[in-house]
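Please fill in the sequence for the structure shown.

STRUCTURE ENCODING:
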């Protein structure tokens, strides 16, 4: 596995289970900055960048981290580091009014140093789909973008409810989420992706694993009788995860050719686009159900 892929998989694992990276309750700024005074923001995660653009505050971002690539305007924002650390000297030079941090993707020492330097810190740590809307609203209040934030949060919750209503009552179907192939890894009920699978009426076959992102054996997977395999596609991972199944025809998902790839950024980021990932997940499971019904007839 090359170094870039190693870094990507580490970031994904942390994204999928934010609760495991939080030793303390979510921290919020004790004192809110007066509305209108926040003009320069350092956003230290891709999902924070997406949230800020969603409320019309993307033009306030003066720096971000690697992988912040959506929307297209985000590509022009200067990078000051990533999961392995940020350039504190660059932060000092930029003199931000607000820094949006993420415990799952920023080094604890960097966050503590930013606090000691006196910067106003906002912790973005959503643990459920609903909390994405909560954070959109909070950021809107802080930045004086209440109206656009309210519209974005409301639209998000309405779409989430619509997806759940449309798919949650569908016939259950067994899903193996293939997070990685070497080693073979999946996700449990403690992870972010489990929420999506469950909301789509799927049954996560690794839900009861003892860790959020368990390393599993091929034998364990074969015993699940998974009817669908879903894998994230990002930074070359579709090729990395595509090669191991063909000879295991005893697994229904393989035998019936029900193996699907979904854009990993849509599945793994705490942003409004998470619902695009969830919608795609639901469509995949509906396609697999239809294939099952056709074979039965």
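FILLED IN BY: designer on duty
SEQUENCE:
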């Amino acid at each position: 596995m090359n170094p870039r892929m190693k870094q990507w998989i580490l970031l994904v694992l942390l994204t999928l289970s934010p609760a495991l990276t939080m030793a303390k309750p979510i921290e919020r700024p004790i004192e809110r900055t007066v509305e209108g005074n926040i003009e320069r923001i350092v956003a230290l995660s891709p999902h924070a960048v997406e949230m800020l653009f969603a409320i019309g505050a993307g033009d306030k971002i003066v720096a971000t981290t690697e992988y912040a690539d959506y929307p297209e305007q985000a590509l022009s924002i200067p990078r000051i580091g990533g999961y392995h650390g940020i350039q504190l000297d660059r932060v000092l030079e930029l003199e931000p009014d607000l820094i949006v941090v993420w415990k799952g993707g920023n080094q604890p020492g960097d966050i503590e140093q930013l606090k000691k330097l006196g910067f106003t810190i906002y912790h973005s740590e959503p643990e459920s789909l609903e909390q994405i809307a909560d954070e959109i609203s909070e950021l809107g209040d802080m930045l004086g973008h209440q109206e656009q934030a309210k519209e974005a949060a409301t639209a998000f919750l309405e779409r989430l409810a619509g997806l759940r209503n449309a798919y949650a009552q569908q016939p259950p179907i067994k899903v193996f989420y293939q997070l990685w192939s070497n080693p073979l890894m999946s996700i449990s009920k403690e992870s972010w992706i489990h929420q999506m699978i469950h909301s789509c009426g799927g049954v996560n076959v690794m839900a009861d694993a003892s860790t959020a992102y368990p390393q599993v054996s091929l034998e364990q997977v074969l015993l699940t009788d998974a009817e669908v395999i879903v894998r994230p596609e990002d930074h070359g991972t579709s090729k990395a995860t595509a090669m191991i199944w063909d000879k295991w025809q005893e697994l229904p998902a393989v035998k019936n050719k029900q193996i699907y790839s979904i854009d990993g950024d849509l599945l793994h980021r705490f942003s409004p686009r998470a619902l695009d990932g969830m919608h795609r997940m639901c469509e995949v499971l509906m396609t697999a159900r239809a294939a099952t019904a056709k074979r039965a007839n």
